[in-house]
Fold Purine nucleoside phosphorylase.
Amino acid sequence: MTKYIEQAADYLKQRGFENPEVGIILGTGLGKLIENLEVEAEISYNHIPNFPTATVEFHKGKLIYGSLEGKKVVVMQGRFHVYEGYSLSDVTFPVRVMHLLGIKHLLVSNASGAINLNFKKGEIMLIDDHINLQGDSPLAFRGVEKMGERFVDMSAPYNAEMNKKMEQIASANNIKLHKGVYASVVGPQLETRAEYRYLKIIGADAVGMSTVPEVIVANHLGIPVSAVSVLTDECDPDNLEPVNIEEIIAMAAKAEPDMITLFTELIKQL
């Protein structure tokens, strides 16, 4: 794997991806951050050696490099999921490549469903902790110890200093920012009523199909990470309605400006 990571990183360096300070992973329906970026280079995933290719129609599939708030950043416009048929090593491959490019911080966004019924769709949750329900680990492979500590401590997977700054930014900009626990499942099917009840019992405030693998690998690599969930639906098992993907995308778009403010203002302070 090390050779594949180096090949991808070398390819990107040759095309201008030089010494990014911050890596950003954009989730479902959350691609407009790019409009705030002074783009210097962009490459489709299918042109990068050994890179997976996004198969979800609302994930763009581009790696973009440029300046944002005076910092060099590399942005994943579209991410990978286990439900697309990828392994967790595939899903987290881009994080390892961004690490080799030189990122010092990682910001992650996702669209998720609100398990905590005090949270409403169109609002944002800062992830304080997570529950891995994907049934596997991106560190469970032979030779992982050559890339970092095998038994990675996960007592505080989300960087406290970055999260505190995010809360201060939200307060200063009148953004309603919840804080809670994110549960990551495989998908792609949505949850049953019984599954939503189970998730609430075990302490989840929101549920989605991403983020946790990337966060685990960021911790493995020693990269401070912060993540936010844009809440696109309310998962009330007693009043559950059939899923509407168009509405989920619309809710992501509604909350996206606040997410962009949080990310851009945080980058300014890093």
